[in-house]
Amino acid sequence: MLNPLDLLRSNLSRVRIPEPTNRIYKQECCLSFDTPRSEGGLFIDMNTFLAFGKEYVGWNYEKTGDPVYLHVKQTIKLAPEDRPSKKPTLLAIGIDGGFDNNEIEYEDTYSIVILPDYVTLPFPSVELPEKVRLAVDAILRAEGAERKEQVAAWTADKKLISAYAMNLQQIDSGVVIPPSGWKCAKCDKTENLWLNLTDGMILCGRKNWDGSGGNNHAIEHYKETGYPLAVKLGTITADLEGADVFSYPEDESVLDPLLAQHLAFFGIDFSSLKKTEMTTAERELDQNTNFDWNRIQESGQEVEPICGPGYTGLVNLGNSCYLAATMQVVFSTLSFCSRYYKNQSLKMAFEVAPADPTVDLNMQLTKLGHGLLSGKYSIPALEGKDQANAATPTASAKQEGIPPRMFKAVIAASHPEFSTMRQQDALEFFLHFLDQVERVNGGRLEVDPARCFKFGIEDRILCSSGKVAYNRRLDYILSLNIPLHEATNKEELQAFQKLKAEKILEGKEVTSDEIVRPRVPLEACLASFSSPEEIHDFYSTALKAKTTAIKTAGLTSFPDYLVLHMRKFVMEEGWVPKKLDVYIDVPDIIDISHMRSKGLQPNEELLPEGVPADEVESNKPIANDDIVSQLVSMGFSHLHCQKAAINTLNAGVEEAMNWLLSHMDDPDIDAPISQGGQTVVDQSALDTLMSFGFQEEVARKALKASGGDIEKATDWIFNNPNASASSDMDATTSNPTPTPADAGLPDGAGRYRLIGIVSHIGTSTQCGHYVAHIFKDGRWVIFNDDKVGASINPPKDMGYIYFFERLTS
To answer: Domain UBA, which positions (predicted)?
Structure first.
């Protein structure tokens, strides 16, 4: 048998000296949350530079055949109690001049380990081959991939004032930017939109490497015009320094000291917004926020800490509470628990993972699932002083939790916002997460856990002719308006408003104990979703004219888990964002059986699918090009401008503008304009789909069903593999027979039990804090990042997102 040094020399071909561009993992196992501080330490593959815990390094050897590993073990170093603290000089963590958390110091020990027999050689040692010594030195000197991402994200961005800001030319073309309903002027994108600060054009951002994002229209506009600065719509808040301003010639995010003036040029007046922030935020909202913090986080109450399987906290990576709260509730569902924990071991996921498991969503979800649910890491943390100096460490109430770094890096890779360290909207993250899970499971219904949230919605449109149309769509969440007029405590509210007025006259402030908030029953929010809604200017193919129709909505299927989103954030006049300060009375059990859509009834007649082209031409005028071009120059979508001109009979720009501003939120505002009874399909979009190999008739049908959006059309084709031109369904007269995608959804009874609440504290989804409360093992549990405990008073009436599980009995 070879001696250890000869064995190492015989495997030198499997040892690499890392290049500066190599990602080196040396702080966390790729398959688990083991670290060098774990009992078995960490093993770094000296060929791939991936790290593995003691239980998992053998799997890597079996899969890759890589035998040589650098073993890193950290043990606590005794530290003097009177160690002085260094004053930070830089807004950063973990770098010279940054914050020092006074964390316990550890002593590192290294060795070279050769598998499969775990033959060990000490390091450092002059007897080791030079290649091995050089490789280890390079690994130890290199910034770990995990640490590199963490420090880069934590270091404050040093934005510079743009050289183009102070003398920015602005063109007065009468553009007034509405507070909502934005869309790219050159395509149908409604997200990632940028307002050019010179001419007011609203255009989409850059296309990402994976095809997501925008269509590059904003940067193309800069190349055509040379207009240098644009601000991202949706990032503009009362704090203008937080707005995302980009300089194309400087090719980076910049500061615009005159941003308020530049925005006011296009009708966005921030003076009232700032004034509101200075008064309301420091008086009422401050009181409300303090109340929210105490109530939602259950501050001041003796919360019993809980440890064990299913009770593992998630370390806050820096404004990652939106991710933590969402994922805790997601992994409390049977579907995700089964898919990524009970039915899939870490070894199974690793065996099917690519060469680098850190970039595989399936692997990282399995890692997260096992980390949260196994209980392996849900143990009480050790007190710092005791841990460093005492022979017998003592446990504190707080557990350490697990840091979801690798999961966050994978799930955020295709999203420019979630990859930052900024606070995000938990609802947007939840929908993005489910979309990624659905994609990675490749449409395999039997293994896709995201389907447990999916359901069908059917809109029934009753024309004044007595005939009907049915439209269907799929969704993961039921987004509900909050009808404040349905408050059950109107008398108390009136008394409070009177008291508030009196206090203001006296120059006094209302105390937090005196504030009365509206109480709206959840039943009223659900009823608001289903209640009849008038659609004005509805073109009836039966009457061959515009009329008023009545739209009602219902569910075609009931999901295993029903997610209700409460629309607490609204935009008031003058671009003032407002969070509705309201309680929602949510019962533990709800029954939505009455919300099931009945579909086409025997006594109902569908609206005709179309009318002769000459009849349409006589009823519907063609949009005046001059009116449309003037409206488009103001930043509105070309389709919206055409509709405005048509619906005002080409009366003029002012009339069309007024119509447009009052119809921005119409449910059919994005529906293609019909000509000859047929939906017009954009030829370039059709050509694009056909270049993918789809048949023309199928591509045409997909574009009709998706409103001309290529990405949605592609998804539609994959979800409707049997689609053909012969079974064409027009958007206004959809056949109520379930489509294959609709028919495959989970379904059952309409009784549900409340199992999870994601609550938000703060005045905006882009700031503040998220906390989850979950009903587990017969009791409510609070998950506040890495703090997990028995909930005493769960804030059921203060939720932002509610999760319900269907009752089987």
So the answer is: 622-663, 680-720
